[in-house]
Amino acid sequence: MSAPRGVALINALVLVAGISALSVAVLARLDQGVSRLSEMRLHDQTALYLKAGQVLAGQMLSMPPDTPLEELGRAHLDQGWATPLLDEQIDRGRLDLAISDLQGRFNLAWLTLEDEIDVVEDEELPPELLIEPRLRAALDRLLTELGLERGLQRRLSQAVDPQLDQRVGGWGRSTRPPPLPLTGLDRLRLVEGLDEAALATLRPHVTSLPDTLGPNLDTVTPEVLAALIGPPAQAASLERELAALRPFESREDAFDWLDARFGAETAAFFELLGADVTSNWFEAWIVARSAAPPRAELDSVRLVQRVMLERRDPYACCDALISVSDPQ
Predict the structure, then answer these.
(1) What is the pLDDT of residues 151-200, one digit of tens each?
(2) What is the DSSP string of 229-249?
(3) Half-sphere exposure (CA, 13 Å, Cβ side) for 13?
(4) Which domains does the chain have, with CATH numbers?
(5) Rounded to whole angstroms, how far apart are CA atoms 101 and 280?
(6) Is 257 helix (H, G, I), strand (E, B) or coil?
(7) What is the pTM of this model?
Protein backbone atom coordinates (compact mmCIF):
# COMPACT_ATOMS: atom_id res chain seq x y z
CA MET A 1 0.00 0.00 0.00
CA SER A 2 1.38 3.39 -1.01
CA ALA A 3 1.86 6.09 1.59
CA PRO A 4 -0.88 8.41 0.21
CA ARG A 5 -3.42 5.57 0.24
CA GLY A 6 -2.41 4.62 3.80
CA VAL A 7 -2.83 8.20 5.02
CA ALA A 8 -6.24 8.41 3.36
CA LEU A 9 -7.34 5.16 5.03
CA ILE A 10 -6.20 6.38 8.44
CA ASN A 11 -8.05 9.68 7.90
CA ALA A 12 -11.16 7.76 6.93
CA LEU A 13 -10.95 5.60 10.05
CA VAL A 14 -10.46 8.66 12.25
CA LEU A 15 -13.48 10.30 10.58
CA VAL A 16 -15.63 7.18 11.11
CA ALA A 17 -14.55 7.00 14.78
CA GLY A 18 -15.40 10.69 15.27
CA ILE A 19 -18.81 10.28 13.64
CA SER A 20 -19.47 7.18 15.77
CA ALA A 21 -18.56 9.03 18.96
CA LEU A 22 -20.76 11.95 17.95
CA SER A 23 -23.64 9.58 17.20
CA VAL A 24 -23.28 7.91 20.59
CA ALA A 25 -23.30 11.33 22.31
CA VAL A 26 -26.39 12.45 20.36
CA LEU A 27 -28.21 9.20 21.16
CA ALA A 28 -27.29 9.55 24.85
CA ARG A 29 -28.63 13.11 24.92
CA LEU A 30 -31.76 11.96 23.13
CA ASP A 31 -32.24 9.15 25.65
CA GLN A 32 -31.83 11.62 28.52
CA GLY A 33 -34.38 13.91 26.89
CA VAL A 34 -36.87 11.07 26.51
CA SER A 35 -36.35 10.11 30.17
CA ARG A 36 -36.86 13.70 31.32
CA LEU A 37 -40.00 13.99 29.20
CA SER A 38 -41.34 10.71 30.62
CA GLU A 39 -40.61 11.88 34.15
CA MET A 40 -42.38 15.19 33.53
CA ARG A 41 -45.41 13.42 32.12
CA LEU A 42 -45.45 11.01 35.08
CA HIS A 43 -45.23 13.95 37.48
CA ASP A 44 -48.09 15.76 35.68
CA GLN A 45 -50.17 12.59 35.78
CA THR A 46 -49.58 12.24 39.52
CA ALA A 47 -50.54 15.89 40.03
CA LEU A 48 -53.85 15.13 38.34
CA TYR A 49 -54.38 12.28 40.83
CA LEU A 50 -53.83 14.80 43.62
CA LYS A 51 -56.48 17.03 42.08
CA ALA A 52 -58.84 14.07 41.85
CA GLY A 53 -58.24 13.37 45.54
CA GLN A 54 -59.17 16.96 46.34
CA VAL A 55 -62.43 16.62 44.40
CA LEU A 56 -63.14 13.30 46.12
CA ALA A 57 -62.63 14.92 49.54
CA GLY A 58 -65.13 17.62 48.67
CA GLN A 59 -67.67 15.00 47.59
CA MET A 60 -67.18 12.98 50.78
CA LEU A 61 -68.00 16.05 52.87
CA SER A 62 -71.20 16.89 50.99
CA MET A 63 -74.47 15.73 52.51
CA PRO A 64 -77.26 13.77 50.75
CA PRO A 65 -80.26 15.83 49.54
CA ASP A 66 -82.57 13.99 51.96
CA THR A 67 -80.55 14.97 55.05
CA PRO A 68 -82.91 16.18 57.83
CA LEU A 69 -82.72 19.89 58.57
CA GLU A 70 -81.45 19.31 62.11
CA GLU A 71 -78.55 17.25 60.75
CA LEU A 72 -77.30 19.82 58.24
CA GLY A 73 -73.69 20.76 58.89
CA ARG A 74 -73.22 18.00 61.47
CA ALA A 75 -69.74 16.52 61.58
CA HIS A 76 -68.71 13.62 63.76
CA LEU A 77 -66.23 10.77 63.64
CA ASP A 78 -68.81 8.11 62.74
CA GLN A 79 -69.42 9.70 59.34
CA GLY A 80 -67.83 8.31 56.19
CA TRP A 81 -65.39 11.18 55.66
CA ALA A 82 -63.65 10.37 58.98
CA THR A 83 -62.45 6.96 57.72
CA PRO A 84 -59.19 7.35 55.74
CA LEU A 85 -58.87 5.86 52.28
CA LEU A 86 -55.57 4.01 52.02
CA ASP A 87 -53.89 2.71 48.88
CA GLU A 88 -56.97 3.23 46.71
CA GLN A 89 -56.46 2.59 43.01
CA ILE A 90 -57.09 5.60 40.80
CA ASP A 91 -56.46 5.09 37.08
CA ARG A 92 -52.85 3.84 36.95
CA GLY A 93 -51.89 5.24 40.31
CA ARG A 94 -52.65 4.90 44.02
CA LEU A 95 -54.23 7.40 46.40
CA ASP A 96 -54.27 7.94 50.17
CA LEU A 97 -56.83 10.40 51.55
CA ALA A 98 -57.40 11.40 55.17
CA ILE A 99 -59.83 14.16 56.18
CA SER A 100 -59.81 15.85 59.57
CA ASP A 101 -62.10 18.46 61.11
CA LEU A 102 -60.22 21.71 61.67
CA GLN A 103 -62.90 22.77 64.16
CA GLY A 104 -61.76 19.89 66.33
CA ARG A 105 -58.52 21.78 67.00
CA PHE A 106 -57.55 24.86 69.01
CA ASN A 107 -58.15 27.79 66.66
CA LEU A 108 -55.53 30.51 67.19
CA ALA A 109 -58.02 33.01 65.77
CA TRP A 110 -59.99 32.63 69.02
CA LEU A 111 -57.32 34.76 70.66
CA THR A 112 -58.78 37.78 68.83
CA LEU A 113 -62.21 37.36 70.44
CA GLU A 114 -61.69 39.62 73.47
CA ASP A 115 -63.34 42.72 72.03
CA GLU A 116 -66.13 40.78 70.36
CA ILE A 117 -67.81 38.81 73.14
CA ASP A 118 -66.70 40.07 76.53
CA VAL A 119 -70.22 41.29 77.37
CA VAL A 120 -73.61 39.58 77.33
CA GLU A 121 -76.74 41.74 77.03
CA ASP A 122 -74.68 44.83 77.91
CA GLU A 123 -73.66 43.32 81.25
CA GLU A 124 -70.01 42.77 82.07
CA LEU A 125 -68.96 39.18 82.54
CA PRO A 126 -67.52 38.10 85.87
CA PRO A 127 -63.70 37.72 85.73
CA GLU A 128 -63.89 33.93 85.72
CA LEU A 129 -65.84 34.03 82.45
CA LEU A 130 -63.71 36.54 80.54
CA ILE A 131 -62.88 34.68 77.39
CA GLU A 132 -59.43 36.04 76.48
CA PRO A 133 -57.59 35.13 79.72
CA ARG A 134 -59.21 31.71 79.74
CA LEU A 135 -58.19 31.05 76.14
CA ARG A 136 -54.61 32.13 76.84
CA ALA A 137 -54.43 29.80 79.82
CA ALA A 138 -55.94 27.01 77.70
CA LEU A 139 -53.29 27.48 75.01
CA ASP A 140 -50.53 27.31 77.63
CA ARG A 141 -52.02 24.11 79.09
CA LEU A 142 -52.29 22.58 75.62
CA LEU A 143 -48.66 23.37 74.73
CA THR A 144 -47.57 21.80 78.01
CA GLU A 145 -49.71 18.70 77.40
CA LEU A 146 -48.15 18.31 73.94
CA GLY A 147 -44.68 18.29 75.49
CA LEU A 148 -43.19 21.34 73.78
CA GLU A 149 -39.97 22.67 75.29
CA ARG A 150 -40.66 25.41 77.86
CA GLY A 151 -38.78 28.15 76.02
CA LEU A 152 -40.55 27.30 72.77
CA GLN A 153 -43.88 27.39 74.59
CA ARG A 154 -43.15 30.91 75.79
CA ARG A 155 -42.01 32.15 72.37
CA LEU A 156 -44.99 30.56 70.63
CA SER A 157 -47.46 32.00 73.14
CA GLN A 158 -45.94 35.46 72.68
CA ALA A 159 -45.87 35.08 68.90
CA VAL A 160 -49.64 34.63 68.68
CA ASP A 161 -50.49 37.32 71.23
CA PRO A 162 -52.52 39.98 69.35
CA GLN A 163 -51.61 42.53 72.03
CA LEU A 164 -47.87 42.41 71.29
CA ASP A 165 -46.29 44.43 68.49
CA GLN A 166 -44.59 42.49 65.75
CA ARG A 167 -40.89 42.08 66.42
CA VAL A 168 -38.27 42.43 63.74
CA GLY A 169 -34.86 40.81 64.04
CA GLY A 170 -31.60 41.19 62.15
CA TRP A 171 -31.67 42.03 58.46
CA GLY A 172 -35.27 43.16 58.88
CA ARG A 173 -36.50 39.56 59.18
CA SER A 174 -39.70 39.15 61.19
CA THR A 175 -39.30 36.86 64.21
CA ARG A 176 -43.01 36.31 64.71
CA PRO A 177 -45.95 35.64 62.40
CA PRO A 178 -48.11 38.42 61.01
CA PRO A 179 -51.20 39.44 63.02
CA LEU A 180 -53.92 36.90 63.65
CA PRO A 181 -55.78 35.25 62.10
CA LEU A 182 -53.09 33.38 60.19
CA THR A 183 -53.80 31.49 57.00
CA GLY A 184 -52.30 28.25 58.25
CA LEU A 185 -49.79 26.96 60.78
CA ASP A 186 -46.91 27.11 58.32
CA ARG A 187 -46.53 30.83 59.08
CA LEU A 188 -45.44 29.82 62.59
CA ARG A 189 -42.09 28.70 61.19
CA LEU A 190 -40.96 32.27 61.91
CA VAL A 191 -40.99 31.41 65.62
CA GLU A 192 -37.48 30.54 66.77
CA GLY A 193 -37.11 26.82 67.44
CA LEU A 194 -40.39 25.77 65.82
CA ASP A 195 -38.97 23.14 63.50
CA GLU A 196 -40.79 20.49 61.45
CA ALA A 197 -40.95 18.09 64.40
CA ALA A 198 -42.58 20.69 66.66
CA LEU A 199 -44.97 21.70 63.87
CA ALA A 200 -45.93 18.04 63.38
CA THR A 201 -46.70 17.84 67.13
CA LEU A 202 -48.92 20.92 66.96
CA ARG A 203 -50.76 20.18 63.73
CA PRO A 204 -53.31 17.56 64.98
CA HIS A 205 -54.43 19.87 67.80
CA VAL A 206 -53.86 23.48 66.66
CA THR A 207 -55.06 25.40 63.62
CA SER A 208 -55.62 28.97 62.48
CA LEU A 209 -58.82 29.54 60.55
CA PRO A 210 -60.00 32.64 58.68
CA ASP A 211 -62.92 32.95 61.12
CA THR A 212 -63.57 32.38 64.81
CA LEU A 213 -66.17 29.60 64.70
CA GLY A 214 -66.19 27.63 67.93
CA PRO A 215 -65.06 24.04 68.46
CA ASN A 216 -67.11 21.06 67.34
CA LEU A 217 -67.80 19.10 70.54
CA ASP A 218 -68.18 15.91 68.50
CA THR A 219 -64.70 16.10 66.94
CA VAL A 220 -62.56 18.24 69.27
CA THR A 221 -59.48 16.33 70.38
CA PRO A 222 -59.38 15.27 74.05
CA GLU A 223 -56.18 17.33 74.50
CA VAL A 224 -57.86 20.52 73.26
CA LEU A 225 -61.05 19.88 75.23
CA ALA A 226 -59.12 19.25 78.45
CA ALA A 227 -57.12 22.45 77.90
CA LEU A 228 -60.28 24.51 77.34
CA ILE A 229 -62.04 23.05 80.36
CA GLY A 230 -59.02 23.39 82.62
CA PRO A 231 -58.23 21.47 85.80
CA PRO A 232 -59.26 18.89 86.84
CA ALA A 233 -60.02 17.70 83.28
CA GLN A 234 -57.40 15.35 81.84
CA ALA A 235 -57.05 14.32 78.21
CA ALA A 236 -56.69 10.58 78.90
CA SER A 237 -59.85 10.29 81.00
CA LEU A 238 -61.80 12.55 78.62
CA GLU A 239 -60.80 10.37 75.68
CA ARG A 240 -62.31 7.30 77.33
CA GLU A 241 -65.45 9.17 78.35
CA LEU A 242 -65.99 10.77 74.94
CA ALA A 243 -65.60 7.42 73.18
CA ALA A 244 -68.83 6.32 74.87
CA LEU A 245 -70.70 9.62 74.48
CA ARG A 246 -70.00 10.81 70.97
CA PRO A 247 -71.64 11.59 68.71
CA PHE A 248 -73.99 13.65 70.88
CA GLU A 249 -77.67 13.63 69.96
CA SER A 250 -77.62 17.40 69.53
CA ARG A 251 -75.87 20.59 70.55
CA GLU A 252 -78.14 20.80 73.60
CA ASP A 253 -77.16 17.26 74.59
CA ALA A 254 -73.47 18.22 74.42
CA PHE A 255 -74.03 21.30 76.61
CA ASP A 256 -76.07 19.28 79.11
CA TRP A 257 -73.06 16.96 79.47
CA LEU A 258 -70.68 19.89 79.94
CA ASP A 259 -72.97 21.40 82.58
CA ALA A 260 -73.48 18.16 84.47
CA ARG A 261 -69.83 17.06 84.24
CA PHE A 262 -67.94 20.34 84.70
CA GLY A 263 -70.44 22.90 85.91
CA ALA A 264 -72.49 25.81 84.60
CA GLU A 265 -69.46 28.12 84.38
CA THR A 266 -67.70 25.78 81.94
CA ALA A 267 -70.87 25.36 79.88
CA ALA A 268 -71.26 29.15 79.74
CA PHE A 269 -67.66 29.54 78.56
CA PHE A 270 -68.22 27.10 75.69
CA GLU A 271 -71.44 28.94 74.83
CA LEU A 272 -69.48 32.19 74.56
CA LEU A 273 -66.87 30.45 72.46
CA GLY A 274 -69.57 29.36 70.01
CA ALA A 275 -69.16 25.60 70.52
CA ASP A 276 -71.47 23.43 68.43
CA VAL A 277 -71.72 19.99 66.82
CA THR A 278 -71.40 21.34 63.26
CA SER A 279 -68.31 22.13 61.20
CA ASN A 280 -67.49 24.28 58.18
CA TRP A 281 -63.71 23.82 57.99
CA PHE A 282 -61.80 20.65 57.16
CA GLU A 283 -58.34 19.59 56.07
CA ALA A 284 -57.58 16.86 53.55
CA TRP A 285 -54.17 15.14 53.55
CA ILE A 286 -53.66 13.58 50.13
CA VAL A 287 -50.88 11.29 48.88
CA ALA A 288 -50.80 10.37 45.18
CA ARG A 289 -48.41 7.82 43.70
CA SER A 290 -47.74 6.81 40.10
CA ALA A 291 -45.56 3.88 39.09
CA ALA A 292 -43.24 4.29 36.10
CA PRO A 293 -44.04 2.17 33.03
CA PRO A 294 -42.33 -1.24 32.80
CA ARG A 295 -38.73 -1.17 31.58
CA ALA A 296 -38.56 2.59 32.09
CA GLU A 297 -35.48 3.89 33.88
CA LEU A 298 -37.66 5.93 36.26
CA ASP A 299 -38.71 5.69 39.86
CA SER A 300 -42.33 6.05 40.90
CA VAL A 301 -43.53 9.60 41.67
CA ARG A 302 -45.06 10.45 45.06
CA LEU A 303 -46.74 13.80 45.73
CA VAL A 304 -48.19 14.93 49.07
CA GLN A 305 -50.57 17.82 49.65
CA ARG A 306 -52.61 19.33 52.47
CA VAL A 307 -55.79 21.15 51.42
CA MET A 308 -57.99 23.41 53.55
CA LEU A 309 -61.66 22.97 52.64
CA GLU A 310 -64.66 25.12 53.52
CA ARG A 311 -68.15 23.62 53.50
CA ARG A 312 -70.25 26.66 52.56
CA ASP A 313 -73.16 24.64 51.22
CA PRO A 314 -73.74 21.30 53.03
CA TYR A 315 -75.24 19.79 49.87
CA ALA A 316 -72.38 20.77 47.55
CA CYS A 317 -68.70 19.90 47.30
CA CYS A 318 -66.43 21.85 49.62
CA ASP A 319 -64.44 24.76 48.26
CA ALA A 320 -60.65 24.31 48.39
CA LEU A 321 -59.11 27.50 49.77
CA ILE A 322 -55.47 26.71 50.51
CA SER A 323 -53.27 23.92 49.13
CA VAL A 324 -49.81 23.30 50.58
CA SER A 325 -47.35 20.72 49.24
CA ASP A 326 -45.88 18.70 52.07
CA PRO A 327 -42.24 17.54 52.18
CA GLN A 328 -41.82 14.13 50.56
Answers:
(1) 999 888 888 876 665 443 433 344 555 555 566 787 788 888 888 899 99
(2) H-TT--HHHHHHHHHHHPSPS
(3) 6
(4) 3-102+280-325 (3.30.1300.30), 108-207+219-273 (no CATH)
(5) 8
(6) helix
(7) 0.80
